[in-house]
Amino acid sequence: MRWLYYRDDDLQKAGLPADWQPANVQGILDAATAVKNAKEANVIPYALYAGPAGSDGTADHAFVPLLWAYGGELQDSSGKWIGDSPATRKVMAYYQKAYAGLSPQEILTATKPWTSMREKLGNGQLALLFEGGWVYGGWVAKDKAATEKNVRYVLHPTESGGPSFTIGGPGTCWYITAKSANK
User: Fold this and answer.
1) Is the CB of residue 49 less than 8 Å from the CB of residue 115?
2) Which has fewest Cβ within 10 Å: 128, 139, 163, 169?
């Protein structure tokens, strides 16, 4: 599953409450802006995967969750790709805001940018990241006490503040045969 991870210590230094949770999609950008304005040395406000360097993370950890958060769909009822919609335009505007000083440009060009972004969130150099549940164990393995104290995660918010959500993906699904006694 994928979660919106955040560094509680970085957000509190930016003046956000200990029980921070974004009320809607804009709340993510607002928190990132607060981190940026706090001018903490060596802390990136937000990592939003984008471009070909982000590989499938661009879709799985960024575009698709945002599209759904804005109420959009990838295909219409006939299976046709929806390339232009109000939700798609909102996602593009969101990217524009994120890359206007909140997300590092290296995500667009670095090979496997997720490696450095995951590491940065784990060591306190990144405040917000939408990522897979599997990365939490890597942080705990390196520094359990600091991870448990500082790394939090919440469901991805929607535009309207409606029910938040998470998404599965390759490697996070369980398949159980109909003949299994343990369903």
Assistant:
1) no
2) 163
Q: Please, are residues 172 and 5 in contact by the beta-carbon 8 Å criterion?
A: no
Domain count, the chain: 1
Whether residue 170 lies inside any domain: the answer is no
The tens digit of pLDDT for each residue in 113-166 reads: 888 888 888 889 999 998 887 787 777 778 888 888 899 999 888 898 877 776
Q: Which domain holds residue 31?
A: 2-154
C-alpha distances in Å from residue 59, one per residue of 34, 67, 119: 26, 10, 21
C-alpha 181 chain-centroid distance: 37
Q: Which two tokens stand for residue 108?
A: 């667009």
59 belongs to a structural domain:
yes
Asked whether residue 159 is domain-assigned, the answer is: no
pLDDT tens digits, 14-23: 999 989 999 9
**CA–CA separation, 151 vs 11, rounded Å?**
11
Q: Which sign, positive or negative, has the C-alpha torsion 4, 10, 14, 17?
A: positive
Does residue 44 fall inside a structural domain?
yes
**41: domain CATH number?**
3.40.190.10
pTM of the model: 0.85
